[in-house]
TrEMBL record:
It catalyses: Hydrolysis of (1->2)-alpha-D-(4-O-methyl)glucuronosyl links in the main chain of hardwood xylans. Pfam families: Glyco_hydro_67C, Glyco_hydro_67M, Glyco_hydro_67N. The active site is at residues 276, 350, 378. It comes from the Bacteria. Its EC number is 3.2.1.131. Residues 6-115 form the Alpha glucuronidase N-terminal domain. Belongs to the glycosyl hydrolase 67 family. This is Xylan alpha-1,2-glucuronidase. GO terms for molecular function: alpha-glucuronidase activity; xylan alpha-1,2-glucuronosidase activity. Coiled coil: none annotated.
């Protein structure tokens, strides 16, 4: 198995009795109406059922008096439409048939994938009764793909989009990409990097993007573009890109209209502005609001949206990067055009292995805030370390902002239910995942990293699903249905993120590196900007470790509501996962575990690295039920992970030992290498 088919494997179910049970209730597919979306739904059902069960399933225009089939029905109303939004589906047994219904054809498409999932995961169809509607409207992948075929922070090969061959040649892979996304309910894809090339806005590239949009459309997926804010100058030859300049505004209005001539259902713009050197409205003394609303005005005649990122931080040697986005964006609450959604990363810094939730959530009640997660493992060990991210997504979404009292979770900010902007006029709700896909045959490099794409899509649809339930689905659809093997792999997935945190960034440490975001460099103290060094984040000194963000320090904690603040502001009861995010803690301080800070850190680093051995053992126990090629691939990656976990552990403990001046506590042993040895190996790793 080369992993190409992802969770849409549709291999024949092993048990003949089970097969014939399913086959009895899936003898035909009756489709009333026709549309490219319904055609996609029907052919997916045929492909899936034939693969899983054997017989070819014929299609009929209507069921008539026939029973024992599947009926796809669009445009339901009355009681059947209860609890369904535009994209929702209902699946019931009626008059001897399984009826998959939706208000729209896309709802039916999602229903067909849900029905297939029932069969793939071994659920009965006899009394099937499923109702589901997505909680968030825009569920999208952000690709950081460049026109030259590379992917920023991509670890699974080059770009999926073969720009030089488009629009004439359509790689069949585009359709499989669309199928995989549709099976999860993902309905948007931003095809290019947020560090955007102006080339994407040329007629030449718009034709290519339009060809991709044509492939995505039958799968309910809209295409979006990241835009380069200075394009009026670069492409349009104007003297300025000032968002208040009439010529600039006209340029964007014309460009937006041109895009719609190529792609009538264009999804909208994603903008990274005045962030990490990207151009933006501040270059002209204007604000984020001026920039975003200018694009919204250009988008006015169309249905698309403007997604404006809040990932900003200035090179301020005395400031705390943690506070930057909140300081820059909260003053603008209520001023953005209704077409604008502000896209906020889950945490205040930058996709670290564990971050507290961004204080922006709950702090802008009059502005739709979308959430951005990173699926590509830029800070999570690239494509060699196993980190199942569902627990990370859930931890953030379930955090309580207390914005409107207890129960004001980040999820409720994002799905619009907290501030009441859900479905209000043109405003939208949004979850975005920075894609982990690439041209590797198995899409994600690490075969088990497919689970992160899967989990993101499922959570974007329904954030109440649990990490374990999602893991179960994915394992059964992708790897094996053998119960013991399922439970071994589930255990691995569920613990993997904490294991990684333990050897990489325990107790609230973060960013032990510079630009490459892989080799450990906690000693790194030289960079054009202080907040691009490692020492800026951990603040190790002879007294202790951690960033004081209480009132005696940067006071970033003041950006949270009092109830949140109270959980974190007292060093004596701050939960350990967040301790060093908010406190500079003495090496000798006794923690709730009964160990001193130094001993606790060592314990985490050592047990974290050791736990990779446990991952290896669990994987070995699942072996009999796993495809041999896939099994072997993961064996290799886990071995690398173990070696690198020791590398990271040693780098951290040897470096911190210089400050703490304490021995490694028993039963752990002093690393065999010296700090100089590790530094040398890191220097070599970083050689280009
Ligand atoms: C950082 C990445 C950088 C991205 C940036 C962003 O290192 O490559 O451009 O995020 O999200 O984490 O804009």
């Amino acid at each position: 198995d080369d992993g190409y088919r992802l969770w849409l494997k549709y291999d024949r179910l092993a048990d003949a009795t089970v097969r014939s049970g399913y086959a009895r209730s899936t003898q035909f597919i009756a489709v009333s109406g026709s549309s490219p979306v319904l055609t996609a739904a029907t052919s997916e059902l045929q492909l899936g059922l034939q693969g899983l069960l054997g017989p070819t399933v014929p299609t009929l225009a209507r069921a008539g008096t026939r029973q024992g089939g599947i009926v796809l029905t669009v445009g339901v109303s009355g009681a059947d439409a209860n609890g369904l939004n535009e994209e929702g589906y209902r699946i019931v047994k009626r008059q001897g048939n399984i009826v998959v219904m939706g208000k729209t054809d896309v709802g039916v498409l999602y229903g067909t994938f849900a029905l297939l999932r029932q069969v793939q995961t071994g659920q009965p169809l006899d009394n099937i009764n499923l109702v589901s509607s997505p909680k968030v409207k825009l569920r999208m992948l952000n690709h950081w793909d460049n026109p030259n075929g590379t992917i920023e922070r991509g670890y699974a090969g080059g770009s999926l989009w073969k720009w030089s061959e488009l629009p004439e040649t359509i790689d069949p892979r585009y359709k499989d990409y669309a199928r995989a996304n549709a099976s999860l309910g993902i309905n948007g894809t931003v095809v290019n990097n947020v560090n955007a090339s102006p080339r994407l806005l040329t007629g030449e590239y718009l034709q290519k993007v339009a060809a991709l949009a044509d492939v995505m459309r039958p799968y309910g997926i809209k295409v979006y573009l990241s835009v380069y804010f200075a394009a009026p100058k670069t492409l349009g030859g104007l003297k300025t890109s000032d968002p208040l300049d009439p010529q600039v505004r006209k340029w964007w209005a014309d460009k937006t209209a041109e895009i719609h001539r190529y792609i009538p259902d264009f999804g909208g713009f994603l903008v990274k502005a005045n962030s990490e050197g990207e151009p933006g409205p501040q270059d002209y003394g204007r604000t984020h609001v001026d920039g975003a609303n200018m694009l919204a005005a250009a988008m006015k005649p169309f249905s698309g949206v403007v997604i404006w990122r809040a990932f900003v931080y200035k090179a301020d040697p005395t400031g705390d990067r943690f506070k930057a986005a909140y300081e820059e964006f909260t003053p603008f609450d209520g001023q953005f055009d209704p077409k604008v959604i502000v896209q906020v990363k889950n945490g205040p810094i930058d996709f670290q292995p564990r971050e507290p939730f961004s204080p922006l959530f709950g702090a802008m009640p009059k502005t739709p805030l979308g959430i951005e997660f990173q699926l590509t493992q830029e800070y999570l060990g690239f494509a060699t370390h196993l980190v199942y991210e569902a627990p990370l997504f859930k931890e953030c979404l379930e955090s309580d902002t207390y914005a409107a009292g207890k129960g004001s979770t980040v999820a409720r900010v994002v799905d619009g239910s907290l501030h009441g902007y859900r479905n209000a006029g043109p405003t939208q709700t949004l979850m975005a995942g920075v894609a982990n896909t690439g041209s590797d045959r198995n899409w994600t490099g690490h075969p088990l990293a497919q689970a992160n794409w899967y989990a993101f899509g499922r959570i974007a649809w329904d954030h109440t699903l649990t990490s374990a339930a999602i893991a179960d689905e994915w394992i059964k659809m992708t790897l094996t249905r053998q119960p013991q093997a399922v439970s071994h792999v589930r255990a691995m997935l569920l613990r993997s993120r904490d294991i990684y945190v333990d050897y990489n960034a325990p107790l609230g440490l973060s960013r032990p590196w510079t630009g490459v975001h892989f080799a450990p460099e906690p000693w790194q103290n030289k960079s054009p900007r202080p907040d691009w060094t490692a020492v800026y984040y951990h603040r190790a000194d002879s007294i202790g470790l951690g960033f004081d963000r209480t009132a005696t320090g940067s006071n970033a904690l003041a950006q949270y509501r009092p109830d949140v603040r109270r959980q974190w502001e007292n060093v004596d009861n701050c939960p350990l996962p967040y301790l060093l995010w908010f406190h500079h803690v003495p090496w000798t301080k006794q923690l709730a575990t009964g160990r001193t800070l130094w001993d606790e850190l060592c314990t985490r680093f050592y047990t974290g690295a050791d736990s990779v051995r446990w991952l290896q053992q669990e994987w070995a126990l699942a072996k009999p039920a796993i495809d041999p090629a896939l099994y072997t691939d993961v064996v290799g990656r886990l071995a690398t992970q173990h070696r690198e976990a020791i590398w990271w552990r040693d780098a951290w403990v040897l470096y911190l030992q210089e400050f703490a001046k304490k021995p490694i506590p028993k039963p752990f042993k002093q690393p065999e290498q010296t700090l100089d040895d590790v530094k040398k190996s890191v220097d070599i790793y970083l050689l280009r």
